Amino acid sequence: xxxxxxxxxxxxxxxxxxxxxxxxxxxxxxxxxxxxxxxxxxxxxxxxxxxxxxxxxxxxxxxxxxxxxxxxxxxxxxxxxxxxxxxxxxxxxxxxxxxxxxxxxxxxxxxxxxxxxxxxxxxxxxxxxxxxxxxxxxxxxxxxxxxxxxxxxxxxxxxxxxxxxxxxxxxxxxxxxxxxxxxxxxxxxxxxxxxxxxxxxxxxxxxxxxxxxxxxxxxxxxxxxxxxxxxxxxxxxxxxxxxxxxxxxxxxxxxxxxxxxxxxxxxxxxxxxxxxxxxxxxxxxxxxxxxxxxxxxxxxxxxxxxxxxxxxxxxxxxxxxxxxxxxxxxxxxxxxxxxxxx
Length: 342
Prior knowledge:
By secondary structure, this protein is mostly helical.
């Protein structure tokens, strides 16, 4: 079956940075002009998971999940090397690195706490879209995000207590479980169902050549819609505390860059395929900001500096991820040449 049609950002991809700026501006404008409506929209949550974000994530993830080959899942489970590398990056390297960067760049202890909470929460959802966009191994990514979800339930609270010295950190059972269900489980089921039904009805060529490209465009619109939503709800904080936001963004950006490059180089030295290396680098460097934001609000309070720091994560995630995936794709051909050498 020809299901190697690339996941792209459709007609938005050529000028994606322009679209990001426009969506940010529109979001800020909506948040300023209609604060009550934005507040009411943000209240549509279940166990801390935003329902509007869940809807947008469904359409964002749909083409990615429709491309997953379930028959390859068993092979992905046995592909232990990239899985181990990613888990080491997420749980052994990422937390102390974020602690170091937070202490180096942030004097405010609440800001440090929120930033560290981001570093303790590996992504278990949206990162699969970025893996697909970078031409990485999405099937392997599904396996690892499932492992990360379980690991988060076990390790997040004790790691937070160890690195922050704060007791009473809640284990985010409902938040992690519902996030994985809504951001991975439901799109995976719907994508596989669409693939089965549509290939039976219209044929494999039509599914790969017409349906998936059309859904890529829908996914791109969902991504831009998510940017508008994030900036409308959280961007007002950037306007209210611009200097603080810039300061907090520095260690978060450095953490992402160091983890991305470090994990990717490790995969290169281990002679992994590009698909596995890109997957490991993206999962190893990304964060699940929903868990960090929810934990910061419970432990430190809604208006705390820690809560403010966690909000910076989603505001910078999309432009940083777009840049990372584009850079990874530029290295793909050279990576393969290096890989073939004896």
